[in-house]
């Protein structure tokens, strides 16, 4: 048997100590110790000197070897010589070629804290770069390289701190030598050394968060006890951790020891070490030449997050780079993250009684054909023999089963699956039409790449998830009837669609009281309901296709779900939200549904955005649904584009584009809705209509090329603000409506601008009604209205036409038409001016009074009559007829 004191022990950092000396005998060891005796005497003498040295107030000393700045010293050693115990030496960025002896309790730190820009390189490669000959020394933030001895060498002193350094191309990165104790080595990066960190006779030191790679030995302990090694990453070395001699009672916890060439750990004749919660992944994880082992490879099972993410601490993770997990074939039946079997650590007599289960799952194969040999011939048998986290790989074929999935975190996937593939050659056909094809009652289940077919009768489903969470249903084709694939008919002509006219057809995917599940990229067709969410929350439906069903997606009594990028077509109803709140439907395409594209019933606080709905009877309909947001959708080619009715209150419709519908946006028997920034065009009926409703608001909408752009019927207290209307037979038509406010709208280039019929107590203020081919403003049988501050110009027939519309108030308007006003029938009580009031009027004059009457030829009443007193009011009254007299007509203020 070889002695442990070979080239891998702590003294391999020092080439001149080992050259020519046999280290394979006790005599060789004695010779080495004799050679070190003089050095030990020197260290003790120095220590005594430091004990007797005085102390002074701490000083900050700066070092900079560049010519750019003035510092106290230009070498670190000079600063050390000048320093007193407790001082701090701050080293500015640069490259310093020195060998530094630190014989005082001081701190030496890089100013930037960056080991890449403050480099200390050995001036004499045969000497240590930092030789520590005092207690309480701190070395932080340096790049340290180029020594054939050590980057940092502590000669038997205590409470030193070596932190945040990068040590490379040294014989030894950091060496704690002969009874060095209580030192802290934290967050250092060490590479390309013979030994990364060496402890020879060191005790009670803390080595944490260091990264050690590409060394012969990562961490080497010789005759070193009671040290703590935690959260170090030791990778790609020849040996990861070297534990020899009287290196007893050390604790190794949370270290990751991976991809080391010869072994993760070499151990020889040590005892009472506690080695737990480490991750070993090396071709040989532990190599030993020990005769007897008294170390502990696990602690008592204790609650706490382990290194593999499990919920209990115990032993260690044991894997190899080829993916093998140890103990092989072991299970974790109680799901505590600890294997049920102990691990006899390979090649040693060591035992880990509580090995931690790593992340690698078992793969179980299923095939019922004469092709590949598999573990099982049925999916159900594979599930019944699976454990949480396993994957069931299903080979192509036809499996006639009804499958119960009761194992958590289980993945069922077609062996032939690849994204974009549409072969669907792994077919699971319902054996019993009265049962679900897949019934999932376990969390974390994934079903991917399968062709799932019926027939399935109501209330059963292709995939039924009941009371589960964190499941993933991805890239499956789900239909309600079976077509034999051997018929060799193209998939688009044999789309497995069942005539869904009967009420007994089941659903494609059913989420029942389930949450946090992803339905992604599934094709579901020919069902009573393609996808049904019932009492389910916080699920994501992404990029699915639902077609040829009664309901594409039905969200019932479910909240906070996300429906994004789905394609809903050729159903009776595309998406149906009932008694549901907080759901988001976005970026979807909804078309050719015979009843409605998207329907919200009794639903509150949902968002419909960035979707396209076309060629539906009604593209989007809300019934008794409030506080929803419809934003940035495009709706076209339907009887109704967006329809709100039956107490659908306080909804917001923002920036939607509604075109080529019979009726674009229709609000009926609903209140408190706000329509902002929508565009409604090319409707055969109305662009935007409000019926039998109160207290709605329309702001900044654009309506054009409709028969009626904006239509108000039997409605009150509606606000029309800053809307733009053009290219229609009727710009704004108000019928049988009262107490509405139409302000600052631009209603131009229509046949009729504003058209009020049988409507009273409305106010038209600040609007523009220009260039309409008929009348600018028409009031028919509409009394008690107020028209003020409007600009009415260039209309072909009349600017203002009043028919039997008495008791109206018309003042401070600007008229400039060939024919400005026509009064027909009885307009008794109508006033064409208000009381003279000091205020800026519509042509910037100083008084409110009547109206400004102009014509394009310049011969209008206000243009040709005098204002001798300069008050902005014509000296003459303007009598249209006996019922229409403007007693205070405005005069043109421009001379």
UniProtKB/TrEMBL annotation:
Superkingdom of the organism of origin: Archaea
Domain Carbohydrate-binding/sugar hydrolysis: 91-222, 441-601, 616-757, 763-876
Keyword Transmembrane helix: yes
Keyword vocabulary terms for this entry: Membrane, Repeat, Transmembrane, Transmembrane helix, Ubl conjugation pathway
Transmembrane segments: 40-63
A Pfam cross-reference name: NosD
Keyword Transmembrane assigned: yes
Gene3D superfamilies the UniProt entry points to: Single-stranded right-handed beta-helix, Pectin lyase-like
Record-linked SUPFAM superfamilies: Pectin lyase-like
Biological pathway: Protein modification; protein ubiquitination
Protein name: Cell surface glycoprotein
Annotated organism of origin: Methanosarcina barkeri 3
């Amino acid at each position: 048997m070889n002695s442990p004191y070979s080239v891998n022990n702590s003294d391999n950092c020092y080439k001149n100590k080992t050259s020519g000396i046999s280290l394979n005998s006790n005599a060789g060891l004695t010779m080495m110790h004799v050679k070190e005796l003089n050095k030990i005497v020197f260290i003790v003498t120095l220590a005594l000197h430091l004990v007797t040295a005085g102390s002074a107030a701490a000083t900050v000393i700066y070092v900079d070897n560049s010519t750019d700045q003035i510092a106290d010293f230009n070498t670190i050693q000079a600063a050390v010589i000048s320093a007193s115990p407790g001082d701090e030496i701050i080293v500015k960025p640069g490259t310093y070629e020195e060998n530094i002896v630190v014989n005082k309790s001081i701190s030496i730190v890089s100013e930037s804290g960056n080991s890449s820009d403050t480099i200390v390189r050995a001036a004499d490669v045969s000497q240590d770069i930092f030789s520590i000959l005092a207690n309480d020394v701190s070395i932080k933030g340096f790049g340290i390289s180029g020594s054939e001895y050590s980057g940092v060498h502590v000669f038997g002193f205590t409470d030193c701190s070596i932190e945040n350094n990068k040590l490379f191309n040294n014989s030894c990165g950091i060496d704690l030598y002969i009874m060095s104790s209580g030192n802290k080595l934290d967050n250092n990066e060490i590479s390309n050394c013979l030994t990364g960190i060496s402890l020879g006779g060191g005790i009670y030191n803390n080595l944490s968060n260091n990264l050690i790679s590409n060394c012969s030995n990562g961490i080497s302990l010789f005759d070193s006890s009671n040290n703590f090694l935690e959260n170090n990453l030791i990778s790609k070395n020849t040996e990861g951790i070297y534990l020899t001699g009287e290196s007893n009672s050390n604790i190794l916890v949370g270290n990751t020891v991976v991809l080391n060439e010869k072994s993760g750990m070499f151990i020889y004749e040590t005892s009472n070490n506690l080695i737990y919660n480490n991750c070993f992944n090396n071709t040989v994880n532990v190599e030993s030449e020990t005769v007897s082992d008294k170390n502990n490879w696990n602690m008592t099972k204790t609650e706490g997050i382990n290194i593999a993410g499990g919920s209990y601490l115990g032993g260690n993770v044991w894997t190899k780079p080829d993916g093998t997990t140890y103990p092989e074939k072991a299970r974790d039946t109680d799901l505590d993250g600890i294997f049920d079997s102990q691990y006899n650590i390979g090649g040693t007599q060591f035992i880990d009684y509580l090995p931690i289960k790593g992340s690698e799952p078992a793969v179980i194969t299923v095939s019922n054909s004469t092709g590949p040999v598999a573990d099982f011939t049925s999916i159900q048998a594979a599930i019944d023999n699976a454990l949480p986290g396993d994957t069931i790989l299903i080979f192509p074929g036809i499996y006639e089963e009804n499958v119960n999935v009761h194992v958590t975190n289980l993945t069922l996937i077609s062996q032939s699956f690849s994204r974009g593939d549409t072969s669907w050659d792994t077919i699971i056909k319902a054996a019993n039409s009265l049962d679900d094809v897949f019934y999932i009652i376990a969390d974390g289940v994934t079903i991917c790449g399968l062709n799932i077919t019926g027939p399935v009768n109501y209330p059963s489903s292709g995939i039924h998830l009941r009371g589960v969470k964190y499941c993933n249903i991805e890239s499956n084709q789900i239909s309600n009837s079976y077509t034999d694939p051997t018929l060799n008919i193209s998939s688009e002509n044999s789309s497995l669609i069942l005539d869904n006219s009967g009420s007994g057809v089941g659903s494609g995917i059913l989420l029942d009281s389930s949450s946090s599940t992803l339905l992604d990229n599934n094709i579901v067709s020919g069902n009573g309901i393609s996808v049904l969410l019932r009492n389910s929350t916080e699920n994501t439906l992404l990029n699915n296709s639902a077609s040829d069903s009664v309901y594409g997606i039905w969200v019932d009594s479910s909240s906070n779900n996300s429906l994004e990028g789905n394609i809903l077509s050729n159903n009776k109803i595309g998406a149906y939200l009932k008694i549901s709140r907080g759901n988001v439907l976005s970026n979807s395409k909804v078309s050719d549904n015979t009843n409605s594209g998207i329907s919200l019933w009794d639903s509150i606080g949902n968002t419909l955005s960035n979707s396209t709905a076309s060629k539906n009877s009604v593209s989007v309909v809300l019934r008794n649904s409030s506080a929803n947001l419809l934003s940035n959708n495009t709706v076209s080619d339907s009887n109704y584009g967006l329809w709100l009715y039956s107490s659908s209150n306080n909804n917001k419709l923002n920036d939607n584009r509604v075109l080529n519908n019979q009726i674009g946006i229709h609000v009926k028997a609903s209140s408190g809705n706000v329509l902002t920034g929508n565009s409604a065009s090319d409707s055969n009926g109305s662009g935007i209509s409000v019926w039998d409703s109160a207290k709605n608001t329309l702001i900044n909408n654009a309506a054009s090329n409709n028969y009626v752009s904006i239509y108000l019927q039997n409605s009150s207290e509606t606000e029309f603000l800053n809307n733009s209307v053009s290219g229609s037979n009727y710009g704004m038509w108000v019928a049988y409506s009262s107490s509405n406010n139409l302000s600052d709208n631009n209603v131009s280039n229509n046949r009729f601008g504003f058209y009020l019929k049988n409507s009273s107590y409305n106010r038209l203020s600040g609007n523009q009604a220009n260039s309409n081919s008929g009348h600018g403003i028409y009031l028919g049988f509409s009394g008690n209205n107020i028209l003020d501050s409007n600009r009415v110009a260039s209309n072909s027939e009349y600017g203002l036409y009043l028919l039997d519309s008495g008791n109206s108030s018309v003042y401070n308007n600007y008229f400039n038409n060939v024919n400005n006003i026509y009064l027909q029938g009885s307009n008794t009580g109508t006033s064409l001016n208000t009381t003279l009031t000091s205020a800026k009027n519509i042509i910037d004059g100083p008084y409110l009074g009547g109206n400004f009457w102009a014509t394009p030829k310049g011969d209008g009443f206000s243009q040709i009559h005098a204002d001798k007193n300069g008050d902005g009011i014509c000296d003459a009254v303007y009598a249209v007829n006996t019922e229409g007299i403007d007693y205070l007509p405005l005069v043109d203020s421009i001379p």
